[in-house]
Amino acid sequence: MENFQKIVVNFKLRKRQPFFTCFKGIVKLFLKKPKIVNLNDNIEEKSILIANHCNIRGPWLYELYLPKKHALWGAHEMLCNYSSRRKYLRDVFYIQKQGYSKRKASFIATIFAVFSPMPYKGMRVLPTFQNARLKETVKRSIDILEKNVPVMIFPEDSSKGYFEKLTALFPGFVTLSEAYYKKTGVDLPIYPIYYNTAKRVMMIGKPCYVQEYVKQGLDRRQIAEIYLTKINELNDLIKEKY
Length: 242
Hints:
By secondary structure, the protein is an alpha/beta fold. 49% of the residues lie in helices and 14% in strands. Strands 1, 2, 3, 4, 5, 6, 7 and 8 form an 8-stranded mixed β-sheet that branches. Helix 7 packs across helix 8. It is globular and about 50 Å long.
């Protein structure tokens, strides 16, 4: 709960902490600006952004170059104590998703777990859960949306790794959209986004609205399938034109 409160308070600040600003400058040296193709005139401030994670690159590329500052959902373990961060990085991120050996994963996780809280807090990460506590994530996300800050979510199923063509989306973003609609009566625009590593192109697609699909009688999983298609179509468009 304390982590949620700190993140919400941070949105009142116009400037980031100097150390994080310097850290972003270092990251920029390794992640050059991609070509950004926005199929919209702008991105609405009260909106949900769903994007491919693109391994470790995605969150940083969106933080550095997406033309709209935002908050994002991330694994709650990365905002817990050192032991939790190291275990998550070793067992889930590096072994399960990257296929690293246990020895290699342990070495990298031991180091990265020391420094990870700084970028996570600087990037305004909201911790997410796989159980009933997701309600708290949704609640805090609504608070942030009410401050006119978009919320970015990486909904792809990456349990077996990160792939160019996404195979499934978890429907948490649909849950957030429905909760916001229930509270405010506003059907938030949801923008699909795709970053293609080989082409170095980030494409922001046109928004779709969950209530349009709800009216068709579709459930959350079915709605997530529609957005899965839209994200993958952006990648197809990138490969066709660039």
